[in-house]
Design brief:
Blueprint: E1 3-11, E2 14-20, E3 25-30, H1 38-46, E4 62-70, H2 76-82, E5 89-97, E6 102-106, E7 109-110, H3 113-123, E8 124-127, H4 138-148, H5 154-175, H6 177-197, H7 203-215, H8 217-232, H9 238-251, H10 259-281, H11 294-310, H12 318-336, H13 338-379, E9 387-399, E10 402-411, E11 419-420, H14 427-441, E12 449-453, H15 461-474, E13 479-483, H16 487-490, E14 495-504, E15 507-515, H17 517-527, H18 535-546
Parallel strand pairs: 3-13, 3-14, 8-12, 12-13
Antiparallel strand pairs: 1-2, 1-4, 4-5, 5-6, 6-7, 9-10, 10-11, 14-15
Helix pairs in contact: 5-13, 6-12, 7-11, 8-10, 9-10, 13-14, 17-18
């Protein structure tokens, strides 16, 4: 899943560039001011870094950056999570216009800067020339140690969150005992009032419907009896007329066969009328229209309305209100139970302490191993006799990250007490220490492409040879790109990219192109301080490439 291709259009001092990259170890070299870090700057932008209009080449309306990566199975879940299509490669494109507005796409779909940064973590790991500065940050050094020791700090953080939850609940309960007691008494009284009514779900609507029927019982009975009279009265009605029609049609059915269907329809209608008459005759005998029940119903409705006014709710809300108050009372009573809260807090703290001890034990095992590995790397980087130390400093109060702070300390040479990295004065030493740590820990990351931006500043000679060999060694397993000014480092590269600048119509433009064979010898000679006309420099350059 390495970086396969990068293309730039009107970016800073690059008018147009389309560059194919290979695997292994690649270097970018060029004269001072040629823009050796332009590709790295562009790559950071296409992977979500903050941008402004200043990156647009002067005179252009916008710049465009495209990066193409090999696809890998490890990246597919992230693409799926963000809704991006899966293709044979991963194509990321970003444009920035002269007003500073930015847009981005992943495999043709619009993407946010946050999504680009999520992808960046899986694609590229950049070690800048000031990488040592991150070694002074507690979270960075702790993460490096944990990654090196394959330590999962997640369980401790989760246990800390649980303990904090119970700790705060206990503290709040202690502070609010008087208020909670008042709340308990208030809720208990309110619940008692509503429980006397015992409102059932949907009862309010049923009561209103029943009240309407009882209040109109007489008129309902009269309507039923009038309907019976109309359908089956003593002086004739619908039933009699239907029966007469059926009889008349049957008399002539033998003559007119079409009457048979009419007789069938009328007989069906007569049956329905007779059933209806039967039901209506018994309507006034049903017990649910007893007017004597009206008073009891009025009293029930009056109680519903009285409680609704008292608690300033709609009557139909009373059942849910009773359930809510019971839940609140349970919660308040639990908060009043300090013994239970103390027991829960103690249990959570014990679980947290257990995770802390396990975390500390793992770090104590990993710290000496990381110290030894970086110390060994320092010996080859011009700090023979120097040492690196991972110190675990107990904290006054444990945190989610553990019981100890992690500090990196270094001694530049033998006989010197190791001091915190931040207090090491030499810039060259800081760069070499950062490189040593980068080399030791870079194999821990998931990103398939490692970029080193002038981390070899302040070194030379045999140390530079060692740095080149180390980077080439890293390139055996992952793609490595390095911006360097050292010929010894550049000579170790599998791919050499030359950054050069030229003046066109009064504008300075930068280009990047792969070089090989004699062109590479010439560039190495320049980096050695000579020129193509210097036989000594050219010979030295050839010797570097051969070795």
């Amino acid at each position: 899943m390495s970086l396969r291709r990068i293309a730039l259009q009107d970016f800073v001092i690059v008018q147009s560039l389309d560059l194919d990259l290979s695997g292994g170890f690649g270097v970018l070299t060029g004269e001072t001011g040629a823009g050796k870090s332009i590709l790295i700057d562009a790559l950071q932008l296409v992977l979500g870094a903050r941008a402004d209009a200043g990156v647009v080449r002067e005179g252009a309306s916008r710049c465009e950056i495209t990066a193409e990566f090999d696809m890998a199975d490890a990246l597919r879940p992230l693409l799926d999570a963000h809704g991006f299509t899966e293709e044979d490669s991963l194509l990321i494109r970003r444009t920035i216009d002269a007003d500073g507005r930015s847009r981005a796409w992943v495999n043709g779909s619009a993407a946010t800067m946050a999504q680009l940064r999520d992808l960046a973590e899986q694609l590229v790991d950049i070690h800048g020339q000031h990488a040592w500065q991150s070694l002074t940050r507690a979270d960075t050094v702790r993460s490096l140690l944990d990654a090196y020791g394959d330590i999962d700090a997640g369980p401790a953080a989760k246990a800390h969150a649980q303990w904090r939850h119970h700790h705060l609940a206990l503290a709040q309960a202690r502070e609010q005992q008087a208020t909670l007691q008042q709340d308990s008494e208030r809720l208990a009284w309110q619940i008692n009032e509503l429980e006397q009514l015992a409102p059932a779900d949907d009862e309010w609507d049923g009561l209103n419907q029943q009240h309407a029927r009882l209040a109109n019982a007489q008129s309902l009975v009269e309507a039923a009896m009038a309907s019976v009279e109309a359908l089956d009265g003593d002086d004739g009605g619908a039933s009699a007329r239907l029966s007469d029609a059926i009889a008349r049609l049957k008399e002539h059915a033998a003559i007119e066969p079409g009457f048979a269907s009419a007789v069938e329809a009328l007989e069906s209608a007569l049956a329905q009328v007779e059933d209806t008459v039967h039901s209506l005759r018994h309507f006034d005998r049903d017990g649910d229209l007893d007017p004597s029940d009206l008073q009891a119903l009025d009293e029930r409705l009056s109680l519903w309305m009285s409680l609704a006014r008292r608690f300033r709710r709609q009557p139909e809300e009373l059942p849910a209100l009773l359930t809510q108050w019971k839940t609140e009372l349970t919660q308040v009573d639990q908060a009043l139970d300090l013994e239970q809260l103390q027991a829960a807090e103690a249990k959570a703290r014990k679980a947290f302490d257990t995770e802390l001890k396990a975390l500390t034990t793992q770090r104590k095992k990993a710290a000496p191993r990381l110290s030894k590995a970086v110390t060994e790397a320092m010996q080859d980087l011009g700090m023979a006799g120097g040492s690196f130390e991972v110190a675990l400093l107990p904290l006054a109060e444990p945190q989610a990250s553990g019981s100890e702070a992690v500090e990196f300390r270094v001694a530049g040479h033998a006989g010197v007490t190791a001091r915190p990295v931040a207090k090491v004065a030499s810039g060259g030493e800081l760069s070499r220490i950062a490189l040593a740590i980068s080399v030791v820990t870079s194999q821990l990351g998931q990103a398939p492409t490692l970029i080193f931006d002038e981390v070899d500043s302040g070194i030379g000679g045999e140390v530079a040879h060692t740095v080149g060999r180390l980077l080439r060694q890293l390139g055996a397993d992952r793609q490595v790109l390095a911006v360097t000014h050292l010929a010894q480092v550049a000579a170790c590269a599998n791919q050499h990219l030359l950054v050069s600048k030229r003046s066109v119509s009064g504008q300075t433009l930068s280009t990047v192109q792969p070089i090989d064979h004699e062109a590479r010898v010439t560039e190495l000679a320049r980096m050695l301080g000579g020129s193509a006309s210097s036989q000594a420099s050219m010979a030295h350059a050839r010797e570097l490439l051969e070795t």
